[in-house]
Amino acid sequence: MKLLYNISIFHLELAFKILSLFNDKIKRGLEGRKKSLEIVKANISKTDKTIWMHAASLGEYEQGLPVLEKLKEKYPNHKVLVTFFSPSGYENVVKKNKEDILCYLPFDKKSTISEFVKAVNPEIFFTVKYDFWYHLLDELKKQNAKIYVISALFYDKQVYFKPQGKWFVTELKKNVDWIFHQTEKSFSLAQKVGLSEGSVSGDTRFDRVKQIKNRDNFVEFIAEFKGNEKLIIFGSSWEAEEKLAQNISQKLENFKIIIAPHDLKRVQNLKQIFPKAILYSEIAKSQNRETENETILQINDFTTSTVLIIDCIGLLSKLYSYADIAVVGGGFHDKGLHNILEAATFGIPVIFGNKYKKNPEADALIAQKGGKTFDNEQQASDFVLQLTKDSVLLDEMGENAGNFVHNQPNSSEIILKKILE
After folding, report:
1. φ, ψ for residue 353 (rounded to 5)?
2. Is residue 325 within a helix (H) or strand (E), and if so which, with residue range?
3. 128 strand-pairing partners
């Protein structure tokens, strides 16, 4: 099985090289990996002790951040390394995190990963959710690092629960010191295959969104745009949510709409769907008045507009603080539901599609009557319109959503306590 694994890693790297010829995102990730060892050697000496967090992408980074912050408080003199597999994680975080050492995780080839781990000299390593790599874990154990998995989420269709996955389960059992599970179901599945060194600690994303709720969430111009109206935010929208927004905007009165697409390439499509909508960048330009020759958008133009399109990244979690209803994207197709907790933490109803099998928090939010799921855009549209007319239901769902988040246990404290034993 080890031979097959090595062959699969060889083909993975080869696929990246081929696809990088046609895909700029993959190319950036491939080029970034070439610099990883250099970055580590330039920032970590042989006498340093290191805390290392690995996150596949941005979502996992946000999930692991509460634990990382607590470890940094406990070990202020340790170096901190954060590695990513995906450019979407690395590129977003590197812009705003200037404190830690950030780089891509090299491909999991034995010689490459061995040199990398030795350069890191990790004392504590943790990966978030389920991004496991055989040679990485094996080399970490050889270096006597403590190895943890946080916010693990096992489900029965994963390879670990199939005959071909037994080899990797054995390696996990041998190398990982403790697995912190999000749910009882995940822990139960792990125990069935012999991964008994673990416990249920909950989802660290709840800790993260509680922090988000309590920070300064001011976003320039949004209060003026909203005025005295109610506001619906379509967060991380895909085509389905854009259609939903279009349908609602045609029937809605005394409500404002903000659309934050999951991909900024969707902005031009949105401008075609909503020809009278304004872009956030237009407001910023109009208020800065940078050039005399450019047409100036006056302040009253955007305050009287009903649809605002966010054509920049990094604002969504703050924007939810202004919302009265949130429609979160990704649930009407198989790409996966985006983060519903960032909206729920502000005590507003959360609406989404029904394809979210890897998001147990969605079922929990529905059970607490703080969120609602639908099979198609029309059903969701009808319900959102109902919410806009029923202030009692709107307030009840919002209160339920807020309570759902803020009544969750402090997962990162539970994890830290175990790590420090």
Report:
1. -75, 170
2. strand 325-328
3. 150
Amino acid at 305: S
pLDDT of 291: 45
Give residue 162's pLDDT: 84
Write down the H helix ranges in 20-152: 24-33, 36-43, 58-74, 87-94, 110-120, 134-142
User: From the CB of residue 191, how many other CB atoms can be counted at a distance below 10 Å?
Assistant: 14
Alpha helical stretches, state H, 252-368: 267-273, 280-288, 299-304, 316-319, 341-344, 360-367
For Cα atoms 198, 201, 204, give the angle at the middle one, nearest 5 degrees.
125
**In the prediction, which pLDDT does 293 show?**
44
Cα 390–chain centre separation: 32
Question: Mean pLDDT, consecutive 10-residue segments, the chain of 421 residues?
Answer: 88 94 92 96 95 94 95 96 93 89 96 96 95 95 97 87 85 95 94 94 94 94 94 96 94 93 92 93 71 49 87 93 97 89 98 90 96 95 95 98 95 96 88
Q: How many CA atoms lie within 13 A of 398 on its CB side?
A: 19
If you write DSSP's letter for every residue of 167-231 in order, what string do you get?
Answer: HHHHHHHHH-SEEEESSHHHHHHHHHTT--SEEE---HHHHHHHHHHHS----TTHHHHHTTSEE
Q: Which regions of 211-298 does DSSP assign to beta strands (E)?
A: 230-237, 255-261, 278-279
Contact present, 410 and 201 (Cβ < 8 Å): no
Q: Single out the residue of 303, 302, 351, 364 nearest to residue 323, CA to CA.
A: 351
Strands 325-328 and 307-309: unpaired
Please check whether residue 314 is in contact with residue 280, taking contact to mean a CB–CB distance below 8 angstroms.
Answer: no
In whole angstroms, give the CA distance from residue 242 to residue 123.
Answer: 47
Residue 349: count of CB within 10 angstroms of its CB: 29
Residue found by looking up tokens 């979407």 in the block: 88
Residue 176: closest CA among 419, 412, 420: 419
What does the alpha-carbon distance between residue 91 and residue 103 come to, in Å, rounded to a whole number? Answer: 10
CB half-sphere exposure, 80, CA atoms < 13 A = 17
CB 252, CB 385: distance < 8 Å: yes
Tell the burial category of 342 from Cβ atoms under 10 Å away from its Cβ (0-12, 13-18, 19+): buried
